Amino acid sequence: MPRGRYSLHDPHDHTPLADEHFQCAPGPSGWRYVSRLTGPAGDHRGSVDLALDDLGRPIRLELHAGDWQVRGAALDGVTWVRTDPTGTQATEGNVRAHAFTGTSPAFLVATARLLRLTPSSAATRVRLVAFTDPVLAPRTVDQSWALVNSEAHATDNGPLTVDEYQVTALDTGEQHTVHIAGDVVLAAPGIELEDLQSPPSRFD
């Protein structure tokens, strides 16, 4: 069960945003990731709880940021309920999309699991609902994912395969690279793996 800490920063000006303390593991029905976020001063910023089925679809998502909350799942596309800070109003949303995304590294692993690309695969288009900080506002985004390299590295625990993805935002054409090993993000824009206390899990 990998556990560790990511540091999150603004990918443009590198302003520190939060630390994400996480643990994750595959299970009999898929994969689960839970984390808590703290600000640069150590204050509580929110949490992530994401569960996928064995096909990589989100069967449960719960996000907290400040006093905002989102609960969602794959249902007729993806469906979610967003609750305001006072708790008096809840708005429901539904989009014909494949999955969710956001600032957490969990969503990069989840998208990679959903697509199951190989180096010989063509670039694959995916529609995602992004929840943007700090109020978890939903926004539909279209991306293209391609697995451009998959390389095994020798470690004390046996070979570790690192996958390099090229991700393109289809609305702007902006491209970036994501490196993932098992269920841990090694590097991505705005994300740095600062601490890892056990090796990444290997998916079947």
Describe the structure.
This is Glycolipid-binding domain-containing protein. It comes from Streptomyces corchorusii (Streptomyces chibaensis). The chain is mostly beta strands. The protein has one domain. It has one helix at 106-115, and strands at 3-9, 16-27, 30-38, 44-53, 58-65, 68-74, 78-83, 90-95, 99-101, 124-132, 137-153, 160-169, 175-181, 184-188, 191-196. A 15-stranded mixed β-sheet has the order 8-7-6-5-4-3-2-1-15-14-13-12-11-10-9, with helices on one face.
Q: Let me know the largest β-sheet.
A: 15 strands, mixed
Helix content: under 10%
Instruction: Work out the radius of gyration.
Output: 16 Å
Secondary-structure class: mainly beta
Unreliable parts: none
- Pattern of helices and strands: EEEEEEEEEHEEEEEE
DSSP summary: helix tally: 1
Mean pLDDT: 94
Cα distance, first to last residue?
15 Å
Organism: Streptomyces corchorusii (Streptomyces chibaensis)
Protein name: Glycolipid-binding domain-containing protein
